[in-house]
Automatic annotation (TrEMBL):
GO terms for molecular function: 3-oxoacyl-[acyl-carrier-protein] reductase (NADPH) activity. SUPFAM superfamilies: NAD(P)-binding Rossmann-fold domains. It comes from Halalkaliarchaeum desulfuricum. This is 3-oxoacyl-[acyl-carrier protein] reductase. GO terms for biological process: lipid metabolic process. It is an enzyme of class 1 (oxidoreductase).
């Protein structure tokens, strides 16, 4: 069977841990070369660094230390991807943070700047810099953004997180319109409760909604990675501007 991302150069932010790590491993398994762009090499859940694990399995990968709130860092990650692999075919803007549950009376300007710089600025400039490369390529490219069901629905005590992820959801739609003529597809994944190191550390999130999820379980990084693979591959050649919900049906009745 043909590998779905054979010969594709991919850059995945926040790929040392959680959803990003699983996306990177899945893409590599499907033939992609992978740049792991993160602020740290070591997975939060422990184990071998993502790029080293890919190489151990016979794949091609590199690690580029990247703070997505820094445009200079993002530019370096893009440049090093092109230098190492010859192109940039798929950009996954995965890096993000969750501040925990906060009422609007608890948030301050520092919280706002930190969250927006990572969750929204990182996506916007990651997309901008990737698009500059993809526009010059005959086959364009694909951009996959990680939003959240909190970007589509309101959730108590999550005003800043909802704002940041709502921005991701809507800029995905806009970029699909703007970049479509250049052969660049832009889509977003909107996960629900996914079991990662980030969510399991917060007792107010992990395992608290299982009974209200129609599929009766929290999601896994594999659930997210499989959707990212679809959106990055030619199987989604006519899909752009879409926010794909991966939540086990949690928001189906919203």
């Amino acid at each position: 069977m043909t590998e779905r991302l054979s010969g594709q150069a991919t850059l995945i932010t926040g790929a040392s841990s959680g959803n990003g790590r699983e996306i990177a491993l899945t893409f590599a398994n499907e033939g992609a070369s992978v740049t792991v762009a993160d602020i740290r090499e070591e997975p939060r859940e422990g184990g071998t660094p993502t790029h080293e694990l890919i190489e151990e399995r016979g794949g091609e990968a590199q690690f580029v230390e990247t703070d997505v709130s820094s445009v200079d860092d993002l530019q370096r990650a893009v440049d090093e991807t092109v230098e190492a692999f010859g192109s940039l075919d798929v950009m996954v803007n995965n890096a993000g943070v969750f501040p925990g549950m906060q009422s609007i009376s608890e948030v301050d300007e520092e919280d706002y700047d930190w969250l927006m710089d990572i969750n929204l600025k990182g996506v916007i400039f990651g997309s901008k810099l990737a698009a500059e490369v993809m526009r010059e390529q005959d086959d364009g490219g694909a951009i996959v953004n990680l939003s959240s069901i909190a970007g589509l629905n309101g959730f108590d005590d999550s005003s800043l997180y909802c704002a940041s992820k709502g921005g991701v959801a809507n800029v995905t739609r806009e970029l699909a319109m703007e970049l479509g003529p250049d052969g660049i597809r832009v889509n977003a994944i909107n996960p629900g409760i996914i079991e990662t190191a980030m969510t399991t550390e917060d007792e107010e999130v992990a395992g608290t909604m299982t009974e209200t999820i129609p599929l009766q379980r929290d999601g896994t990084p594999e659930d997210v990675a499989d959707v990212a693979l679809f959106l990055a591959s030619d199987e989604a050649a006519y899909v752009t501007g879409h926010n794909l919900v991966v939540d086990g049906g949690l928001t189906a009745g919203a």
